[in-house]
């Protein structure tokens, strides 16, 4: 099954059994998904990253609603903008970006929609795995590249950069593997072959997430003083 970068990243951020987002990535994942959409458009030669800014090369429809919406957003801009702008713009414009991608995965049969009730009263939709193969394949591929020195392609490297930026390393590797995995992923994504777009998106997502977390901590501290 052919999944795009954003769909693969979302699967990694979902708890396999409950179908809910992993708590530790709720802040970082939307920015990672926005970066994944940009990278997917770049890989499809729909946009070009040059001189620090994104330009549209081909605005024809792809056939994927989420990617088409992102492409339309970028192509509608009156001026070329930097990656940081588009990551924030996609997240703020598509506040339901996770829901959109989940719907894609439900339509593809990877996830299924179930309803459970909180306190036996409040209905909540969850999306557990329906077809485990895509998730298992992605997780195994990441582990083989990082721990077994399997050759990575450009899409693999892009996904690894997003895993790092969204703090998913802790979720994909065992406790005694995490430090080694983090070092290897750093080496892989800093390789000159990965491409400047991937490196810059990784850097911008990391910076935005750090800023968001710092802002949340500062807000909580202010609230706590009253």
Note down, in words, how this protein is organized.
The protein has 226 residues and is mostly helical. It is built from ten helices and five strands, in the order ααββαβααββααααα. Helix 4 crosses helix 10 (196-224). The chain is globular and about 55 Å long. The N and C termini lie far apart (53 Å).
Question: Could you give the count of β-strands?
Answer: 5
CATH class: Mainly Alpha
CATH topology term: yeast vps74-n-term truncation variant fold
Q: How many domains? A: 1
Averaged pLDDT? 87
Fraction of residues in β-strands: 5-15%
| Cα gyration radius (Å) | 18 Å
Low-confidence stretches: 216-223
By DSSP (H or I, 4+ residues per run), the number of helices equals 10
**Secondary-structure-derived class:** mainly alpha
Tags for this model:
226 residues, mainly alpha, yeast vps74-n-term truncation variant fold, two-stranded antiparallel sheet, globular
What's the topology here?
Layout: H1 5-12, H2 29-43, E1 47-50, E2 53-56, H3 65-75, E3 81-82, H4 83-93, H5 97-107, E4 114-118, E5 122-126, H6 133-147, H7 154-165, H8 169-172, H9 178-189, H10 196-224
Antiparallel strand pairs: 1-2, 2-3, 4-5
Helix pairs in contact: 1-2, 1-7, 2-3, 2-4, 2-7, 2-10, 4-10, 7-9, 7-10
What would a concise description of this structure say?
This protein is mostly helical and 226 residues long. 57% of the residues lie in helices and 9% in strands.
């Amino acid at each position: 099954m052919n999944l795009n970068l954003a769909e693969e990243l979302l699967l990694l951020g979902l708890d396999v059994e409950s179908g809910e987002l992993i708590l530790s990535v709720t802040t970082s994942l939307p920015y990672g998904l926005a970066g994944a959409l940009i990278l997917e458009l770049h890989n499809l030669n729909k946009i070009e990253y040059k001189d620090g800014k994104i330009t549209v090369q081909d605005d024809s429809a792809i056939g994927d609603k989420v990617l088409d919406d992102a492409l339309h957003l970028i192509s509608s801009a009156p001026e070329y903008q930097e990656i940081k702008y588009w990551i924030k713009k996609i997240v703020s414009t598509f506040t339901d970006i996770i829901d959109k991608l989940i719907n894609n995965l439900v339509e593809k049969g990877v996830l299924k929609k179930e309803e459970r009730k909180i306190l036996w009263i409040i209905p909540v939709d969850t999306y557990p795995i329906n077809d485990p193969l895509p998730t298992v394949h992605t997780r195994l591929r990441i582990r083989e590249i990082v721990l077994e020195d399997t050759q990575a392609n450009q899409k693999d490297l892009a996904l690894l950069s997003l895993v790092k930026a969204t703090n998913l390393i802790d979720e994909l590797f065992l406790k005694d593997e995490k430090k080694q995995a983090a070092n290897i992923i750093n080496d892989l994504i800093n390789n000159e072959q990965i491409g400047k777009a991937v490196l810059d998106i990784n850097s911008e997502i990391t910076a935005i997430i750090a800023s968001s977390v710092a802002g949340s901590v500062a807000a909580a501290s202010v609230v706590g003083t009253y």
